[in-house]
Amino acid sequence: MELHENLSRRIAAGAALKPWLILGPAYENVSALVPGLTLYETPLTGSGAAVMSEMAAQARTLAAMLQPREGDQATLRGQTGRWSLARMPENYLTWGQYYTQNHLVTVMAATQVTAARRGAHRWRLCTRVASWVMVLINGQVVFDSGLTPATTIEGFQEAEILFDAALHAGENQVVVVMLRIGRMARVGFSFESLDADVHCAVALGEGLSAAERSQVEEQAAGMRLERDILYPEHTLRLYLAQAPAARAPLTVSLLTAGGQRIVQVRPSAAGEVEVYQGKQLEEGTYRLECQWFNPAGEALTAQSYRVQMLTPTPALPGYEHMAERVQRVLRHYTTANDPRAIWSQVARY
Asked: According to the model, what pLDDT value does residue 292 have?
């Protein structure tokens, strides 16, 4: 049967491979081990080479043993997570956070690739930030950037890595591993087969048939937020184009920026779902998480939306109020409930 394109699709030669299952990102404060500028900021004089080598060796060993399926639980750098579907529409997939101290970010991506012919193929890996990148096919490392940054950054131009690697007959497991240390803990990639069309698919977990799992993707594609910026007079509503299936129930949770749950609803029909009243929320950033479960009650897949609660402030037009307007803006960003902590630090500065 034909599955939803988020789960399985034909990829033309030269186009970015999709779909992917993702483990991570896992963030770890390593400032005690790697102080100051890292090798990814100043390659000749930066620190962190020994730490990166150790962490990359651990990630390589883990990746070689993986047979990931959607929903499988795994531990990455001491943090337990699940392999989840990446629905990002972009061809270049990226993850990251900005910190005031050096952090390690680790991400693994996995997909199943089938080509019309076995044997050697030409591949292109693209990254936009200096990092340690590895590619494994069927558990074997076919590319490893090592300590040399995987890209030479010139502005924000994309850099390319070309290499040859063989595929077996039938499905081949492809895993991409990305690591970076820095205050800008960010990694990303796109991966292409240059000389042949291929078929890509994610390995599905147990509990649902392929048809039932594909229906969940149809439900996710039909979701719409009424608005993602709320004022006190607004109600946070979610629109469902399809009713959740009985064997794949859906929960909708409103969470604070720190992950604390405010409310949870379990919709059972298509149409509008009323989640919360804006007047009951403090100003700040929230996350609306829509999560599906398999018949055993295990997490299957999720889709999240960022929601901002604001209370409009009367304007102060005129140059004579410039200083007050500046102070209002700085005060807002100093106290804002925003997960991107760097901006509050800039405002304080």
From this structure: 94
